Amino acid sequence: QAGQLALRAARATAPGSQCSAGAMAPARWLAVVAAAASLGAAAQEICAPAGRPACLGPSTPREFVKQKLPSSVYDKTQRPTCSNRNATEVEVQFKLTQVNSIDQKLGIVSVVGYMHTWWTDPRLAYNASCVKSIVLTGADTKAAWAPDLYIDNLVKRTTSGFPMSISIDPNGNVEKSEQVKLDLKSTLDLGKLPYDKHTAKIVLASYSQDISAIRVRARGGELGPSVSGVGIKASPMKNNVWEFAENARTQGFETPGDVTVSYEWDYLRLSFPFERKPKFLIDQVIVPAILFLLVSYIQFWVDPRSAPARASLAAIPVLIICALANSIYDSLPASSQRLWLMDNLMTSTVLSVLAAMQFGVVQWCLSVETARQVQHDGLKAVEAKARFLVQQAEAENISMLELLDRYHAVETVVGEVEGEGLEPRCAAEPGYKGKLFGSSPEALDKGIRESDLLFIRFAREVFERFDSNRSGNLNANEVQWSLCYFNVYVSSTQAPPMICMFLRDHGMLTPLVESQAELSFSQFCCLLLDIDNYSFRHISWAPKAFFESVPPSMRMDVISRVLFPIIVLAAQLIFQLIVPKY
């Protein structure tokens, strides 16, 4: 419009002229330009609102790029400098919006947020009469200088498809904002698992320029080594596995930046703490382990003679607790670090294995008790022969030990012995001549076979083993321990009155002090034959008397019933107390 007005004005200066704009003389062109300039200024004043100065600076990002960022006047490879400082100051803040995942096995924390960077570039200052801020996006963001910051602990950075912008105010203050997804390497201390606490960090520094050129700090922080400013500003976040700072669910949180100088380089650490919510692992690992220890405990109340049922109760908890431990190990790094949770599971595993081993010990005790019962039953099977020998010893007024010696096999000469060095041969071999063993004449006369004496001789071996003073008699304490070899168990308080009752029933007098009563071998054999009449089991709450009066297999079960739950509860209490030590 201004050009058209100027052209009309020029034509008006030369009435009757028929020349076109392209054929006008130079003098006339000067008049046109002057008129256009004056009319353009007038038009601008007319368009500007009342009380507002005319727009003299860039009004759009495109105009800003054309005016301020052409390569002929702006070198984006050169950092900006201030008149009173040599180094360019760069402020950084990470706006955390969400924590995607925390891989405790690899030690990688994945976060999403906005990386904000601030600096001042005087070369980008402009007249603020048109706009108060210029925002560059897309390819235009590559036209201006930006600090070459890198993340020292970065595993992977994803920016594809995420927006980025650069905002510039009239004074040349620049803010770069970029949405990013960062996978960060973090050192996770899992020692207190599931009560573990960690700190994720973003370590930033200039890639190519030291502190003489670039100084890095958190937003609003101090230059140089310090903990100041706001390094991370987080939005309200909720997570089912991890807990962040206090009130993080509703208000978000802020953490300062930590600047350190290493080898003349500024390193800015932006960090935020997080801790595990322990309920999941407690419910899914610790509580099941304790419950399966309870299953192991149940076996102590099952009859050890029911081996299949008891073996299942002993073995299944071991397998399940080991499976629990393996499932946890699969999610942890292969490390030699002591872990509270794994030590807890290992203790549960050891306890369940000990319970299974107790089953093995009880079965061995049962086998010993069975063998001893066989000896007792064998003696009862030859009760008639045993009582005959007792009567014979009493009739001849000799000890039964002496009587048994008369029933031993004796040497017998077969045929005539011719010379020395004859080899032993089968007695049935025709024509054999020499010495052989045969039944004693008295055994043949009384009809006593050696098989009848087998269990009686075993009783003699036991008798002589405990007859420490070789007196031919056993006192109450010796009788008590001798009976164990025939699967008969009485306490030290039951043995003296039992012996005295037996002696009185057989027409003998007993001492006033029952513990002084003694038994000869023949009396010991008779007591073994009549033991069922005198070994009534009286349950005593005195520990010593109780354990003496029950077989070893039951002793093992009773001890396990008492100690096992105490050990389990004590172990869990100790583990809760030593959590801070990990």
Q: What this model shows, in words?
A:
With about 575 residues, the protein is an alpha+beta fold. The protein contains 15 helices and 17 strands. The strands form three sheets. Strands 1, 2, 3, 4, 5, 6, 7, 8, 9, 10, 11, 12 and 13 form a 13-stranded mixed β-sheet that branches. Strands 14-15 form a two-stranded antiparallel sheet. α4 packs antiparallel against α15, α6 crosses α10 and α6 packs antiparallel against α15. The longest helix has about 40 residues.
Could you give the topology of this structure?
Elements: H1 2-13, H2 26-47, H3 61-68, E1 88-103, E2 108-120, E3 134-137, E4 149-151, E5 154-158, E6 164-168, E7 173-185, E8 197-206, E9 214-218, E10 226-234, E11 242-243, E12 253-262, E13 265-276, H4 279-298, H5 307-329, H6 340-381, H7 383-396, H8 400-405, E14 410-414, E15 434-438, H9 441-446, H10 450-466, E16 473-475, H11 476-483, H12 495-505, E17 518-520, H13 521-529, H14 543-548, H15 552-577
Parallel strand pairs: 1-9, 1-10
Antiparallel strand pairs: 1-2, 2-7, 3-6, 4-8, 5-7, 6-7, 8-13, 10-12, 11-13, 12-13, 14-15, 16-17
Helix pairs in contact: 1-2, 4-5, 4-6, 4-15, 5-6, 6-10, 6-15, 7-13
